[in-house]
């Protein structure tokens, strides 16, 4: 090949290379220009998505388009600002908070809600749930709301607390008596009693009664009675008594276990006793000498016992009286006559009760059908010409009955 041909061939090759380079340059410039133009027309948007901030440049027309581009599933319960249909502008700020489903239990009622609240306090405010001063909640009001959040609220109700007799109004939630007392700061001893039982569930308007039980020891000193010892004395008239030695009471110490409820004694049990001082017996001499009443029979110097029933021979004033009979053991009777004769100890003595203004005490008399006797007693119903004759038995007194008799004064 000649040199001329070689030059022509080389020249053609260079031209092709220049056109290729020029074409590539044009394409590259167009691509860069197009890219710069595309990026330059994008809008800048500041996003806060679930608390995280980021900035994007976008050709999206609406907020919904942006979220779709970012593959964010938008729910009706979510918080979105501005709204999804808002047109995108440059330097726009968008906030999205996804809603969380949480469980809320108030008393026995449970419900699930969607919320975008950040704290428990905000959640309850959104749901219009108020927490009373005495209500019980299982989470703190400042606690953050998460997908795992479960809120349990136990509403408080009124309860009457009676502690040791002192009454006060209180509040409780659904709990047992034991837990309620613990909440109220009430401590119990082993002896205290609670009504109702500690494991009973507390209901509205219940009355919780705490009975304070106290066991104490009480030591008292009580007198110990002395015994009366009698001794027969033949020198004393039968029916008379004479104290030889005065009695003295002893002293006994008794120890009691006392149970008190709310400060008031309800039971007392004797646990021990001992003699502190011995008692001294009272010694009494009792007469055994039988009294014989002697009466005069006129001017005769002879005498007869009161047990004789024969009529006097002569002398003395005679008149009729109304008579009744009595015994030494009648109702209200002491058995001792107004002159000191013990009728119970001397059942054979002949005694009549008289009105001393008619027949003076000590007067010896003769009563028809009764015999010789002594006016030795009185009576509230014995007034004027009336006498009451003594008999040792009720049957004899009943047989005497009430009748008019003649009486003769012997001295």
Automatic annotation (TrEMBL):
GO MF annotations, alphabetized: hydrolase activity, hydrolyzing O-glycosyl compounds
Keyword Isomerase belongs to the record: no
Annotated GO biological process: peptidoglycan turnover
Keywords associated with the record: Membrane, Signal, Transmembrane, Transmembrane helix
Transmembrane segments: 20-38
Cellular component GO terms held in the UniProt record: outer membrane
Residues covered by the G5 domain: 210-290
Top-level division of the source organism's lineage: Bacteria
Stored InterPro entries: 3D_dom, DUF348, G5_dom, Resuscitation_pf_RpfB, RlpA-like_sf
Keyword Transmembrane (UniProt): yes
Protein name: DUF348 domain-containing protein
UniProt source species: Rossellomorea vietnamensis
Origin organism lineage: Bacteria, Bacillati, Bacillota, Bacilli, Bacillales
């Amino acid at each position: 090949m000649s040199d001329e041909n070689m030059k022509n061939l080389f020249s053609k090759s260079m031209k092709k290379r220049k056109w290729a380079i020029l074409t590539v340059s044009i394409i590259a410039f167009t691509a860069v220009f197009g890219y710069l133009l595309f990026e330059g027309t994008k809008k800048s948007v500041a996003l806060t998505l679930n608390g995280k901030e980021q900035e994007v440049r976008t050709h999206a027309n609406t907020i919904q388009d942006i979220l779709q581009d970012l593959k964010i599933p938008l729910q009706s319960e979510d918080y979105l600002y501005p709204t999804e249909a808002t047109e995108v502008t440059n330097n726009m700020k968008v906030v999205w908070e996804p809603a969380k489903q949480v469980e809320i239990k108030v008393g026995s009622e449970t419900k699930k809600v969607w919320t975008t609240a950040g704290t428990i306090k905000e959640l309850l405010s959104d749901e219009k749930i108020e927490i009373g001063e005495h209500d019980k909640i299982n989470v703190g009001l400042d606690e953050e709301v998460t997908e795992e959040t479960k809120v349990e609220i136990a509403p408080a109700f009124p309860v009457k607390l009676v502690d040791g007799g002192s009454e006060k109004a209180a509040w409780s939630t659904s709990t047992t008596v034991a837990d309620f007392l613990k909440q109220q700061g009430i401590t119990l001893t082993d002896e205290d009693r609670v009504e109702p039982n500690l494991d009973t569930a507390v209901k509205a308007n219940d009355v919780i009664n705490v009975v304070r039980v106290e066991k104490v020891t009480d030591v008292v000193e009580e007198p110990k009675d002395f015994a009366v010892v009698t001794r027969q004395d033949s020198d004393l008239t039968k029916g008379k008594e004479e104290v030889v030695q005065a009695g003295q009471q002893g002293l006994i110490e008794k120890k009691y276990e006392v149970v008190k409820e709310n400060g008031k004694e309800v039971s007392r049990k004797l646990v021990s006793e001992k003699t502190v001082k011995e008692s001294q017996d009272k010694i009494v001499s009792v007469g055994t000498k039988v009294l014989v009443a002697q009466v005069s029979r006129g001017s005769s110097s002879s005498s007869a016992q009161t047990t004789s029933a024969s009529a006097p021979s002569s002398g003395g004033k005679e008149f009729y009286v109304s008579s009744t009979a009595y015994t030494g053991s009648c109702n209200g009777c002491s058995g001792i006559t107004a002159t000191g004769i013990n009728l119970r100890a001397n059942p054979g003595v002949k005694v009549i009760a008289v009105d001393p203004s008619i027949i003076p005490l000590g007067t010896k008399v003769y009563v028809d059908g009764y015999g010789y006797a002594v006016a030795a007693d009185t009576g509230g119903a014995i007034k004027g010409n009336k006498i009451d004759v003594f008999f040792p038995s009720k049957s004899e007194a009943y047989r005497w009955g009430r009748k008019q008799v003649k009486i003769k004064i012997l001295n």
